[in-house]
Design a protein that fits this description.
Elements lengths: L2 H75 L3 H23 L2 H14 L1 H36 L14
Length: 170
């Protein structure tokens, strides 16, 4: 191989390597753009969902406020003015919260929850622990029902042809 042939081969290899690097960069850029786009779409959907759900929750909270007002009227009818005033105050606060839920968009709600969590981290920790405990109790209760249902099913079911009957007590 002559010196000029080696030089052109080296230049050709370098240009091929440069082209490969550029293709990798382009592919990485495209993947990053798609990931950013997908993340943006997911955030938009989350905000929309939070906004819709908060409006529904606001309606439910307002319905609860009306029920509390009904209780206040019943108490007033029974001559119990002091508990009726307390129920009215509670209904006012419930209505205020319902109005906040209905009026706030998803972005505002998420920002308010985030701000609250930063100011009161222990409240969030206690809330998370409480939710976890409630979920574990729910799962435990439902698992015992599933277990009992499974036991009833195994006693009632006939064995699958070609398998041994391993049900205890048979």
């Amino acid at each position: 191989m002559t010196r000029s042939t080696r030089g052109s081969t080296a230049t050709s290899s370098e240009s091929t390597a440069d082209q490969a690097k550029e293709q990798v960069r382009d592919t990485a850029r495209i993947a990053q753009d798609k990931a950013s786009s997908t993340l943006g779409q997911a955030r938009t959907r989350l905000r929309e969902q939070v906004g819709q759900r908060s409006a529904q929750a606001g309606d439910q909270v307002n319905a609860t406020a009306q029920e509390v007002r009904g209780v206040a009227e019943q108490l007033r009818g029974q001559g119990k003015d002091w508990p009726a005033r307390l129920a009215d105050q509670l209904a006012d606060r419930i209505e205020s919260f319902g109005g906040y839920l209905r009026g706030a968009d998803g972005e505002r709600l998420l920002r308010d929850v985030e701000t609250f969590a930063r100011r009161q981290p222990w409240v969030m920790v206690v809330g998370g622990v409480t939710l976890g405990f409630a979920a574990s109790r729910f799962l435990k209760a439902s698992s015992s029902r599933r277990y009992q249902a499974g036991q009833n099913w195994s006693h009632d079911a006939s064995p699958v042809p070609g398998t041994a009957d391993v049900t205890p007590g048979r």
